Amino acid sequence: MGSLNVISHPLIEAKLTRMRDKNTSSQDFRLLLKEISILMGYEITRNFETVDAEVETPICVSKFPVLKESFFTIVPILRAGLGMVDGLLELMPFAHVGHIGLVRDEETHVPTEYYYKMPEGFEKSEVIVVDPMLATGGSAVDAISSLKKRGCTNIRLVNLVAVPEGIAAVQKAHPDVDIYVAAVDDGLNEDAYIVPGLGDAGDRIFGTK
Ligand SMILES: O=P(O)(O)OC[C@H]1O[C@H](OP(=O)(O)OP(=O)(O)O)[C@H](O)[C@@H]1O
Ligand SMILES: O=c1cc[nH]c(=O)[nH]1
Ligand SMILES: [Mg+2]
């Protein structure tokens, strides 16, 4: 079973509280999401491998760790996942970015894929799927299935707010995937929105509705 990592930190908690506030503007919401993505990125990248390289300090030549050259692909689930890309790219400017467009049907809550574009060779890379919300889990499960169908074997999932239902759905469909979240909320309402949650992440990021 993949691990469930709840990244708790006072800075993340305080910023997430501001994102939950319905009076927070789109501008602030976007900035807070970027800042949290950077803070979460610190934990997500904790197991990155390093190798020793020779460096000449002003005093002498010695060996020090540098990041092992690896191929990473950040995959936002459109639209809302886009809000987490810039923060992660600040930590991993060498990463590539692929996109999967998914939208949930308002009545059935079942997602439909409307866009898919990956960088060349991505299937051999470490893939980081990002989406602020893990609600029923349908979108994350489909996005990961879509990537696996194309040959991806090394996938982790990063969400801002999740609920137990969504976590269970991903763990059942993709037991090999490690999940990183900033918070686990109570559950879903009748419209499959996270409670207490923060509303529709895509709408709040882009100011739609
Ligand atoms: O776990 P689930 O029940 O699948 O719900 C989560 C999905 O719902 C939202 O996307 P939405 O369909 O609203 O699209 P948007 O990002 O374009 O707003 C959110 O960004 C996730 O992708
Ligand atoms: O609470 C939720 C659930 C799904 N998608 C969102 O953006 N918010
Ligand atoms: Mg939405």
From TrEMBL:
Needed co-factor(s): Mg(2+)
Co-factor note (free text): Binds 1 Mg(2+) ion per subunit. The magnesium is bound as Mg-PRPP.
Keyword Membrane: no
Reported function: Catalyzes the conversion of uracil and 5-phospho-alpha-D-ribose 1-diphosphate (PRPP) to UMP and diphosphate.
Family affiliation: Belongs to the UPRTase family.
Annotated control of activity: Allosterically activated by GTP.
GO cellular component: cytoplasm
Top-level taxon in the UniProt lineage: Bacteria
Residue positions binding uracil: I194, G199, D200, A201
Pathway: Pyrimidine metabolism; UMP biosynthesis via salvage pathway; UMP from uracil: step 1/1
E.C. number: 2.4.2.9
A GO biological process held by the record: UMP salvage
NCBIfam families, A to Z: PRK00129.1, upp
Enzyme class per UniProt: transferase
Lineage: Bacteria, Bacillati, Actinomycetota, Coriobacteriia, Coriobacteriales
Name of this protein: Uracil phosphoribosyltransferase
Domain Phosphoribosyltransferase: 6-208
GO MF annotations in UniProt: GTP binding; magnesium ion binding; uracil phosphoribosyltransferase activity
Chain residues that bind 5-phospho-alpha-D-ribose 1-diphosphate: R79, R104, D131, P132, M133, L134, A135, T136, G137, G138, S139, D200
Reaction it catalyzes: UMP + diphosphate = 5-phospho-alpha-D-ribose 1-diphosphate + uracil
Transmembrane intervals: none
Key word Calcium present: no
Keyword entries, A-Z: Allosteric enzyme, Glycosyltransferase, GTP-binding, Magnesium, Nucleotide-binding, Transferase
